[in-house]
Write the structure tokens for this entry.
Amino acid sequence: MKGTFHIADWEVDPQVNSLKRADQSVHVEPKVMQVLVELATHSNEVLTKEQLIHAVWSDTFVSDDALTRCISEIRRVLDDDPRAPRFIQTIPKTGYRLIAPVEYDRVTPRPMDATTLVQDTPRRGGVGVEPLLAPNPRKFGRINSAWLPALLGLLLVAVGIVMLRLWLKPSSIKPQGTFTVVPFTSYPGTQTQPAFSPDGNQIAFVWNHGKDDNQGIYIKMMGNETPLQVTSNSAKDFSPTWSPDGRSLAFLRYSEEDRGIYIVPALGGAARKVFTPAGKIEWERGALSWSPDGRHLIFPDGKSSTSPSSIYSLDLTTATARPVTRPPLSWDGDASPAFSPDGSRIAFVRGIEGWVRDVYVMNTAGGEPVRLTFDDRIVSSLAWTSDSSAIVFSSNRAAEFSLWSVPAIGGNPQRLPVGGEDVFNLAIATKGSHLAYTQSASEWKIQKINLNAPKSPETTVWSSSQEDSAPQFSPDDRRVAFQSLRSGTQEIWVSYSDSSNPVKLTSFQKSLTGSPSWSPDGSQLSFDARPEGRSHIYSIRIEGGVPRILTDGDFNDVVPSWSRDGRSIYFGSNRSGSWQIWKTPSSGGTPQQVTKDGGFVGTESQDGNWLYFAKSDAPGIWRIPVAGGQEQRVVDQPRIGYWGYWHLAKFGIYYLNQTTSPPSVDFVDLDGQHHTKLHVLDHIPPPYAGLTVSADERSLLYNDEFQLGSHITLVDGFR
């Protein structure tokens, strides 16, 4: 079903995963839309759970939980009460039925919009593919009938050979029926980062009860519902890993006052600090692994503005650490290390930049790492199989995050028939036949603050289970550009300011495309994209067309911003060996370095005299004269990692202030002298992307995420 249709008073457009009613527009994730379309296709028919799962998840194995979550999301959007349903009726022990009336729109040719132009036009950098050979109508003319019997015979022989090879080919994935998938945790808040005990009978995990200052390590035994709290501290604890004898747990602890590697008895007790890493490198993704001989811990560390992160090995006897990997200097670096169960190798992820990563493996004794995947996508986490023959990893190589396996000696990754979608942290037991993973769901919103009445409640402009972020008002305030995952990969979208009529401008379908920035006349957008791995700056006309690449080279260019006269584009780049602000002619040309002491995202003042900017490795906002000169620090917020949460206006800066609890949106004048608290937020929003202010300074939009839940699922029968 490709055209739009109506369910009661809702208009459903499967092509953009949207539902509209009056002035309300909601976007849902692709699988939720597929479930709704399947129900609508069989309106008033009872569809079993098995029928729906087979129709929507035909290429993988999922439990009933995935379907239940989709049904719940549909009911939430439609405001449907399962106890008195108006849309979806639950048939106990069977399935579901759509009981609301369905009307189909007459199919008419769609006008060629920006999406069609971008998808159908050949372009540079892998965005479009030009045919290698143009079709020749004369070459495919009528075939002489005398050849037909011979051709048919050859075709039958070829089909027979293919079928025989498929029948004889051994399957590397176990049949679905051999797995048992059950929830392992279902507590309030989020449970993540599972780690199996050496005997495979217990799982240590991180539990955040929903409060920023309450995140500790817990242990739960198989078949026992009550978990044991191992750590209790106002700091945040991450990445538990078991000692080989099962008596201790090592973990990472972080707070504003302290960071370190700690060891605690598995039965609970006082934790002792054994090492202080230099940085906090993605500890939430699993960053600590204990060697099978019990002598070493490995972890990522050392990242700065001038060097990437490396994998370090901590000798627990001497309490000294040394690097065991040395990524290229212009790369983001190495993370998520894991010892193989036999102790002979280390697997880790290496990234050109934060959103482009692949799986590598190396010998514990040293030597050059071997690259195992070549996707240039995101790898969230990884784990070794119990026999040390393969590495299982979570990746968005097929759009949604799912589980894949690749042989440790190299080969083609294969998708596992467990895990479904939105699967992240994973662990595999070295004894027994268990796999565990974290499955999470979030609701992403773009919230609006009325700056004429900043203390009034916020309103939601966008709401989606897929990430919509980095909103940017157009110069005339009529439209908003944003980055979104609603099409499966993150692309650039544009809609009207009320969120209506969203149009996808880019179709790179590789890794992440984001950070939109409007030209002063509103005719173009610049953005960063990674079609070949490296991140570079592109521009595109608002009416669509072929994106034009503005920078290239063996380094990363990110987060563009136009100069006030439209002649230049500023951007962050590590092409000099550290992150600095550069600028390039908007028509194309040679980039020039602007900052010398660090810079990541910059904006030119409206009078064109100053460049205000944030840094990647230090909190705050600085400025330097556009004509050249020394940098000045204007304000000490936002924090590191929240470089998108500020907006330069005519007379000052709107920014996220996290020095108080709860955080707030504040305003400071251009000299950084006078501060005003404008609006208090309920919680800290997600990092990176941020906020935008309309040209008339009446409205402020910011990116927000509401965690709907994150729990651990257990797979029994995995080998």
